[in-house]
UniProtKB/TrEMBL annotation:
It comes from Emiliania huxleyi (Coccolithophore). Residues 43-67 are annotated as: Disordered. Residues 48-65 have a biased composition (Polar residues). One of its GO terms (biological process) is Golgi calcium ion homeostasis. Keywords: Membrane, Transmembrane, Transmembrane helix. This is GDT1 family protein. The chain crosses the membrane at residues 74-95, 138-163, 260-280, 292-312.
Amino acid sequence: MTAPFARCRGKKPTALSMVSFAPLLPALLPLAFQHPGALLQRGAPSRCASSPSRVPQPSLQQPPNSGDAPLLPWVRPALVGASAAAVVAGGALMLPGVAHASILDSAFVQSTSLIFISELGDKTFFIAALLAARASKLLTFAGCAGALALMTVVSVLIGQIFHQVPAGLTRGLPLDDYVAIASFVFFGIKAILDAAQIEEDGAGIAEESEEAEETLEQSGLYGKSGWPLVLEACTLTIAAEVGDRSQIATIALAAAQNPYLVAFGAIAGHCAATGMAVLGGSFISKYLSERVIGFVGGGLFLVFALTTAVGLF
């Protein structure tokens, strides 16, 4: 019979193998803290017992009242806890490699991250920020977030129309996945190229803020309250969101992924970005880097294009 450790030679340890040896750790580790005489008293053989020695050997008997006995009640539980923590920590270090692909493939994570990054510093972001600075923050959030949630549902429905195209028209090809991959690659490369060509970081964000300010002044929204404020904020947000990058990303994701997870994730991303804009958009905009947002957003588009392409094979 092959020894258990010989079978595992040359293989990388896994979380399962670590858990299988976990019960042995509490029993083995306390032995390292016991006095050597205790091992000899249990019958452990000594290689030097029969060999003559000219140098007198010190006694291995543990002296009484040495102070080791009182340590045992708390040393053993401490070692048990430490060994359990080591097993859990070691297994946790191995989990990211296994869970990495599933996290990237999650429609909820993809839609939340893409929408949140796309909305930072966008025109809808500054509409919510400027309006919240002069009107009710709660009503502003209700109007802007409600409009973005409505646009998300519409975008998901459009994506599902691509997904429901009869196979006879596409000759069996997954047209929805191809459209999603092409959209991700296009927006990813465009975002990275635009970010690389930015000479003065923050100029584009300032331009978006000025456009949002002009839109609000032309609409006469300042000074309104109640339901008129909510409806007008909803209308302006919808007008600014039509044809936006985040809407195209939602359509592409809904065509290739679970539509419910895409919808919930996109709404969560919109609410997070809108909440930041309402609570402190004018302050946050000072620290937003258009170049960093472009590189991060473009990188996410390309990564999700790759994961969608891998899912086809």
